[in-house]
Amino acid sequence: MKPLKRILSIAKPHQRYLYGSILFNLLYSLLQIFSIVTMLPILRILFKLDKEVDTKNVPVYSGKFGDYFGYLKDMAYYKIQLNINEYGAIQVLAVLCGITAIAFLLRNLFRYLGSYLLVNYRVGITKDLRTAMYDKFLKLPVSFFTEQRKGDMMSRISNDIGAVEGGIMGSLVDVLNAPFMIIASLITLFILSPQLTLFSLLVFPVMGLIIAWVGKSLKRQATAAQEELGNLFSLVDETLKSSKVIKIFNADKILKNRFNTTTDNWQKYAIGMSRRRELASPMSEFLGSVTLLIITWFAGTEIINGTNKDPVTFLAFIGVFFQILDPAKKLSNAFSSIQGGMASLDRVSEVLDYDLKIDEIANPVSISTLKNEIEFKNIGFFYDKDNVILKNFNLKIPKGKTIALVGQSGSGKTTIANLLARFYDVSEGEILIDGENVKNLKVQEYRHLLGMVTQESVLFNDSIFNNILMGKPDATEAEVIAAAKIANAHQFIDELPEKYFTNIGDDGNKLSGGQKQRVSIARAVLKNPPIMILDEATSALDTESERFVQDALEKMMENRTSLVIAHRLSTIQKADWIVVMERGIIVEQGTHQELFEQKGMYRRLVELQNFG
Prior knowledge:
It is built from 22 helices and ten strands. By secondary structure, the protein is of the alpha/beta class. It has a six-stranded mixed beta sheet with strand order 6-7-8-3-9-10, sandwiched between helices. It folds into three domains: 3-352, ABC transporter type 1, transmembrane domain (ABC transporter transmembrane region fold, Up-down Bundle); 358-449 and 530-542 and 560-612, 3-Layer(aba) Sandwich (Rossmann fold), CATH 3.40.50.300; 457-528, 3-Layer(aba) Sandwich (Rossmann fold). The chain is elongated. 33% of the residues are buried. Keywords: ATP-binding, Membrane, Nucleotide-binding, Transmembrane, Transmembrane helix. One of its GO terms (molecular function) is ATP binding. Residues 20-340 form the ABC transmembrane type-1 domain.
């Protein structure tokens, strides 16, 4: 979707604010001109340019369109002079000043209301854009996050959307106000003096070219600046997560140099962007001022020579022309800001338009449980022809059985788990659940059948209770405690200061590795899925913690279909079937005893771990 089209689509629910703002800005522009025009008769009274008029000498409209505005002006002067004749100049002057004051009051009130409604429009769109991006994060496949840096994604949802709000949405006030003001001012100028107005219009094409040049270069600089900001966020994210490694290897100088390089690059692009943005305003103001001075010289010579006997009209013309300069300057700044914001909007759209790759078919098949078996049929998986991860992989997992995958690192074990969970889709072959291809199933319903415990425990900065509850959001406290007991976690949780409602910090860092793993298992137990995937669930633990966790895993896997990936072969002796993999293919399979007696790769792996 094109970036601007996306903004318009997101803006639909908030359009009432925009329409209201346009109405009030239009009224503001009209009153802005009216408040200046009302100064004309005031000045004429002060300079005593009008004389008593004959009530019978009423201005007559010639019928020509070009004379209509002149006729209105003469009629206004005629009516004012009649009132002066009847009530006196001082009383009429007071009334005119009162009308002008009311016009100034109303125009500023309308200006505030227009901006007030536009704030709702601007902030509403920004919120919806940020929500759309977060929703996309939740839907994106695992492969996306292995290719992209988290810091850059944080920069896009914070800084880039902030730049869209400040650059594009923040400029809406001027984009709406300025054209109304310029058009209303031009109409008034034509009424006051068509000749001078046509002369003054010569400057606008030049201003347009300057704005276009500045805007084009701004977008390039803004894109580069936002990319460097993404690099900076990524570096900060790595630094915060790797503080122990940085300190033990005295790597602070290396990281500081990287940070300085990134900030220097960002500074260079940000300064270039700001210089160009600031150039638009003084250039447009300079051209406008030069035009104003030329108009002053041109009209001044006529007044001095006596060919123009109405200096008040000229003063009003200058006053109205000044009203054009400010909105013209703001409009040029707004276009410059929008170009900078467009660079950020492109980066946001890049994420929102990312192909999910793993998606549902048009009419997916509903699924509620596993009835018979899981089958991997002629599975192949590769990123390209030279990087084959799996080839001709065939395996059946009967319901209620535990199948273990073993092999050296890089043999494809974790890839099998990721394919079963549909984090990725197979390149060749098919995965069948009770004979149905997983690609044909409803993704959300299918994942309800799955539970997963990985080597790295993924916990959230929240209480233990809420972390476990994620497995079943509507569970009772008793169910959460029961799940924790099965996971051998209840005892240590009960000893914490606030028990189940203790906050465990960022990534659960207030807990030990074994405790974190048992909380993860409790979460999976509470979900109670028919299919369980265990990916190196004990490999990062010490012996004592491993015993607790292994006991919890065995309880959890009772009467459950399980796929277990393990480096520590002592943890999979009791598996119903063991599959030995090497470089993406199956080299051996059987029970522990059968494989051990074959004296093949499995036995070599066991002996390397001093088990046998």
